[in-house]
Amino acid sequence: MSLVEIVREKQEALRVRDLAQLLGVSPQQIYKMAASGEIPSFKVANAVRFDPHETAEWLKEKYPVRSVALRFPEARRA
After folding, report:
1. Looking at the domain assignment, is residue 77 inside a domain?
2. Over 50: is that where the pLDDT of 10 sits?
3. Residue 78: inside a domain
4. What is the pLDDT of residue 68?
5. CA–CA distance, 53 with 47 (Å, rounded to integer)
6. Which CATH number is 63's domain given?
7. Based on the structure, what is the number of domains in the chain?
8. Per the domain annotation, does 57 fall within a domain?
9. How many whole angstroms from its chain centre is CA 22?
10. In this predicted structure, what is the pLDDT of residue 9?
């Protein structure tokens, strides 16, 4: 299953730590990307969240070939 497919199948908003784990980066990097507008995000109170469908589309646009070609191990279900 590709990373885009893993993210797209999520039914609830992704948390920073969930997205960091899926992308293999630190939570701090995710916060920076969200703050700069590099990755689509929204806030609930003071918490940053990510719509899984918007995030999947962002991945497809940012990495059009690799997001389809790479295969990732099954992610933990939240």
Report:
1. no
2. yes
3. no
4. 46
5. 19
6. 1.10.10
7. 1
8. yes
9. 7
10. 80
Q: Using DSSP, state whether 23 is helix, strand or coil.
A: helix
pLDDT digits (tens, 9 = 90+) for 55-64: 988 988 887 7
The H or E element spanning position 31 is helix 27-36
Instruction: Tell me if 75 is assigned to some domain.
Output: no
Chain length of the chain: 78
Q: Which positions ≥6 away from 54 have C-beta within 8 Å?
A: 40
Which phi and psi angles does 54 have, rounded to 5°? Answer: -65, -40
**Where in the sequence is the domain holding 24, given as residue range(s)?**
3-69
- Please state, as a whole number, how many other Cβ atoms lie within 10 Å of the Cβ of residue 12: 10
Return the structure tokens found at 22. 């899926």
> What secondary structure letter does DSSP report for 65?
T
Distance CA 42, CA 28 (A): 16
Q: Which two tokens stand for residue 1?
A: 């299953």
Q: Give the N- to C-terminal CA distance of the chain in Å, as an integer.
A: 17
Specify the pLDDT at position 69: 46
Identity at 77, one-letter amino acid code: R
